[in-house]
Design brief:
kinase activity, alpha/beta, 9-stranded mixed beta sheet, single chain, about 25% strand, kinase, PfkB_dom, 9 helices, Ribokinase-like, about 290 residues, Ribokinase, 4-stranded mixed beta sheet
């Protein structure tokens, strides 16, 4: 290992971006222009954000691809300063670090991601990185190529590591990846998309029951309703610990995923890990972005 970090308990295989964030009074309609009341540029990406969240609990490494531009150094420094091992964050020659265009309005958000260097993360690079890191838990999301996700899943199968699959942004998932997911971590919309035609889009317990036979375990997050967990038995409800006013929902899903991975790596069972993750996400949405 490099960077002076401990061996990784969690490896997050995913994206690293620079986020371009505009706050507006309301979402623009098609063809309309609105003026932002606030604009910021921040380091983000689902992979990096989840790694930062996991690193608050256990030693965590990020496996990612960045460009050969100045933003790549900014990404590495941001992650390293927050305790993430960046020894497996590789530069892609001739490419730009990924970008995310984020619009915040009324406590909600809309996001467009340009993968750029994230799209150059290869299966071979993922397999080699995980072989060096030897994590107990691997967390993947879908802002990276499908073959990189599959390489992480196959490495977990061979090494006996636990695989967390967060299919966001949602797309079809290879059957062999789904079969190894422990858990499959999805919100209501993602769960409905994966469950197929006719799935109840607002029924967390029902969606968890539909997906459970296809995976080792499943966690369906449901915003203010908390989460629903199925792991070889009845669906269990994990409620939010307290009702809060939502100030900014951005980043809540990534915080949940990272903390869930960390708690599982620390030895919690899935229900206990989900309770801890729900509590973290609940506090986050009630906290203004500039105070996080």
């Amino acid at each position: 290992m490099t960077d002076g970090t401990a061996a990784a308990a969690v490896a997050v295989v995913g994206s690293a971006n620079v986020d371009l964030v505009a706050t507006v009074a309301s979402a623009p309609a098609a063809g309309a222009t609105v003026l932002a009341s606030r604009y910021e540029e921040e380091v983000g990406g689902k992979g990096l954000n989840q790694a930062v969240a996991a690193a608050r609990g256990v030693p965590t490494a990020l496996v990612a691809s960045v460009g050969d531009d100045p933003e790549a150094r900014r990404v590495r420094e941001h992650a390293r300063d927050r305790g993430v091992d960046v020894s497996e964050v590789r530069g892609a020659a001739g490419s730009h670090t990924g970008r995310a265009l984020i619009t915040l309005f009324g406590g909600d958000n809309a996001i467009v991601v340009a993968p750029l260097a994230n799209g150059l993360l290869t299966a071979a690079a993922v397999d080699a990185a995980l072989g060096r890191l030897r994590p107990a838990v691997v967390l993947v999301q879908f802002e990276i190529p499908e073959d990189a996700v599959e390489a992480a899943a196959l490495w977990c199968r061979g090494a006996g590591a636990r695989l967390l699959v967060n299919p966001s942004p949602v797309r079809p998932v290879a059957a062999e990846v789904l079969a190894l997911a422990d858990p499959l971590l999805v919100n209501l919309g993602e769960a409905a998309a994966l469950a197929g035609d006719g799935a109840p889009g607002d029924d967390g317990p029902g969606l968890a029951r539909l997906l459970a036979p296809r995976v080792r375990s499943v966690v369906v997050t449901a915003g203010p309703a908390g989460a629903f967990v199925a792991a070889g038995g009845p669906v269990r409800h994990v409620p939010v610990p307290e009702r809060v006013e939502v100030v900014d929902s951005s980043g809540a899903g990534d915080a949940f995923a990272g903390h869930l991975a960390a708690r599982l790596a620390a030895g919690d069972d899935l229900a206990a890990a989900a309770r801890a993750a729900v509590a973290v996400a609940t506090r986050l949405v009630a906290t203004p972005r500039d105070r996080r």
